[in-house]
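It would be a great kindness if you could assist me with a short task in structural biology. A protein sequence and the structure tokens that stand for its backbone fold form the material at issue. I should value your view on which stretches of the chain appear to form regular backbone elements. The record follows directly beneath this note.
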Amino acid sequence: MDQLRTALVWLKRHHFWVLCGLVAIIALGSWAKASGKMDTLFGGNSSLIKAHSPRLRTCAKTRSIRMKMSIRSSRHRPRSNGKT
């Protein structure tokens, strides 16, 4: 019982530093867990983007061709002079 009393006196005297240490340990543990989860999500999303990359390039080329065609066709349209 005497040892417990001395431990409690020590804890009462240094409770601020004990709590600071606990907060630091909890913060580091939380950061490590969140960082691991973010790495997993990043890897999954990265592979998904790489898988769809050729499809996106094809879509972008098609859109680019359509834009060029619409610009060419708009150049050759006769302009109206405003009279009807």
